[in-house]
């Protein structure tokens, strides 16, 4: 693999996106793989760098969401790779792969226990130290731990067909769908929520069987969280005597309209799933719970007003699963606020690699939502060429378009 | 029950404690019980009111820790009290009882699920609205839900004898021992810790079997947390293939010396339990974990420096169980700090009533520690008369004495 490729580059200090020809990346370490990118995503968190908020002072190749095929593998791959993550033995040239937005070795303490986003070798794609996926080729370090082979997804789909999983759909596995799954899972696995699902009282009381939850923020990740949560809850309801009610909240009308269409498309009951703006949500939660508040909140925005709304909606002894990328502002709470409500928080980045087995099943199950482009129920607005990157960043930054994907070969 | 009694009163704005004669309380509601106080405790959180930090502008009878006997019961008690908490049928005049530091009805949503400290009828003892226990008699509202009959404790003790459970020992059930139990339980039940104990991976990873924990703060509650945690961990170790290491931290040398003596008295292994000041603790955790940090922290102080120490000691994807009474200062973290560490927090007050079944077993098991007064391993320094209250508050406020109990009949 010699020669040059097209890539989207960002230049400091801010708002400077250029499409340039740069060298095709090479294998630098035996654990590396070179992926030929089929599609790359433009993600809300790309805007942190775009706007100059991340203290980065060197140019970089953008992007941390990509799907593609393996075109080169380092010397670690092959039948000799015993004792290592399975992919070191099983990955082949031409395999279709998705990459989480961070590198994870699959071998350190954090990877072994499923906290893959805090791998001891973790690097984010799309920073000066690791060129990103908005390019024709991308180098993936620790690839046997990091990458996810797509055949695992197609095997999980109901009818087993490959055709139903378009690349645009698979791209959602790089970040936003696993992050939605993680938000939902953290809430349902919390020690204060799970007694209502498992009927194991906490610790010696009885338990309620009506779970009231809210999702704060209906951007693409919020929608993924809603679909994941409803899927998990309907699964639980089939085996346990439990009722649930979820309110999905966003001040933006077009986001609410899309969430409503998607809820219809996946068959969510209007009794158990409501879409609301902030004042409506407060009234709904108050009516549903006689003023007590929600058991738990999925906070999918990552700023202080979202945290404050979550605090206001949650009941005493409730929990908040906060998966948004928070920035510099101090938390908007006094210690006393948190003591007085016996509140629990789970903060932080999604361990994408660990979530992929669940996320890929959900992806295959809800192809009507995740497989479409540009429709009323689609999370992806359109696919454009790399040349459109400067304009696309600008529109996305101004909230004038939804999620955009780049086809580097268009 | 007519006439006057002695009581410890606080007068605003601060530092004004008087011993006065006041009317003996009467049953005001059919759910009330009047308790003749045998011993009442002086607790660290009494100092918040003492110092004038709680925005209270009316005089009050102090104290939220007491043990005593039932001398009068309202009309709700008796065989007619079906469908209500058991004590409405089974409580008798003369029964020995302990009260949690807050009222809990036993019937609302929060009580039924075990979150008794956030009962919808919750009132703290020792505020203007509810006279406290540093008196000869105290009125207990919602007493069939609030009170705990002591025979349940003696039944749980190994040799079944009543004599081994002195009143001074039982008093620890009102607040500090259950709060220590709660701190330990929150850590061990956390979704991010429990996979290491149950071998159920989170969610699809493997799991480690070495649990590294720290306790921040070795006041009386911190010692109770340490004893409870070690008891639970040794129980787990008997049935599961798990190792643990706990470091107990306090900058105060005499507190560390007491913790060390108590650890010896309960047979804690020096390999798995260390007592340290802050710099030693940082080194110990770093050595034990190769620099990764603790799985979880029991934060038993309730201020920002304790929270910051906890943050510094915990590893990514770790959890902090914070049971201290936090005050007005904003939390000392930026959103980004919490995102970057994937940290979890459980804040808030102990649900004492729900913890009493576990706490009373631990009390009975470790009588060498909990049953002694004024010894090197005792949590209680001495028992004094109510007349000594002004002096005792002053000494306690200045850190010049340990835990003091009042005998109102002395």
TrEMBL record, chains A, B:
Keyword Metal-binding set for record: yes
Key words, A-Z: Metal-binding, Zinc
Annotated ranges, domain Alcohol dehydrogenase-like C-terminal: 236-345
CC cofactor: Zn(2+)
Residues in Alcohol dehydrogenase-like N-terminal domain copies: 30-144
Matching InterPro entries: ADH-like_C, ADH-like_N, GroES-like_sf, NAD(P)-bd_dom_sf
GO molecular function: metal ion binding
Protein's recorded name: Enoyl reductase (ER) domain-containing protein
Organism annotation: Phanerochaete carnosa (strain HHB-10118-sp)
């Amino acid at each position: 693999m010699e020669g040059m490729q097209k890539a989207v580059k960002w230049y400091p200090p801010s708002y400077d996106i250029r499409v340039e020809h740069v060298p095709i990346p090479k294998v630098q370490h035996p654990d590396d793989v070179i992926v030929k990118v089929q599609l790359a995503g433009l993600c809300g968190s790309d805007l942190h760098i775009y706007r100059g908020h991340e203290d980065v002072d060197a140019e970089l190749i953008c992007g941390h969401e990509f799907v593609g095929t393996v075109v080169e593998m380092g010397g670690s791959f092959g039948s000799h790779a015993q004792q290592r993550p399975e992919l070191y033995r099983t990955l082949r040239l031409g395999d279709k792969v998705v990459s989480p937005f961070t590198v994870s070795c699959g071998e350190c303490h954090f990877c072994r226990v499923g906290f893959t986003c805090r791998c001891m070798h973790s690097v984010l794609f799309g920073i000066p130290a690791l060129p990103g996926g908005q390019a024709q080729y991308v180098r993936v370090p620790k690839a046997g731990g990091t990458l996810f082979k797509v055949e695992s997804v197609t095997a999980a789909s109901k009818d087993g067909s490959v055709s139903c999983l378009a690349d645009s759909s698979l791209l959602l596995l790089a970040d936003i769908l696993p992050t939605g799954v993680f938000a939902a899972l953290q809430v349902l696995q919390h020690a204060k929520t799970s007694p209502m699902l498992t009927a194991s009282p906490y610790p010696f009381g009885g338990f309620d069987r009506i779970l009231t939850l809210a999702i704060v923020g209906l951007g693409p990740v919020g929608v993924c969280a809603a679909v994941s949560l409803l899927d998990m809850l309907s699964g639980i309801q089939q085996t346990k005597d439990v009722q649930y009610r979820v309110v999905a909240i966003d001040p933006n009308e077009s986001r609410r309209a899309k969430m409503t269409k998607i809820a219809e498309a996946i068959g969510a009951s209007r009794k158990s799933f409501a879409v609301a703006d902030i004042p409506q949500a407060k009234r709904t939660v108050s009516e549903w719970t006689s003023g007590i508040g929600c058991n738990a909140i999925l906070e999918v925005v990552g700023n202080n007003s979202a945290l404050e709304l979550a605090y206001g909606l949650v009941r005493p002894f409730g929990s908040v699963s906060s998966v948004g990328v928070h920035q510099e502002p101090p938390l908007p709470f006094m210690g006393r606020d948190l003591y007085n409500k016996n509140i629990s928080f789970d903060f932080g980045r999604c361990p994408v690699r660990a979530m992929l087995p669940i996320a890929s099943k959900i992806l295959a199950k809800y192809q009507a939502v995740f497989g479409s482009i540009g429709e009323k129920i689609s999370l992806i607005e359109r696919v454009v060429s790399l040349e459109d990157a400067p304009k696309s960043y600008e529109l996305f930054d101004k909230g004038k378009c939804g999620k955009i994907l780049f086809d580097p070969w268009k």
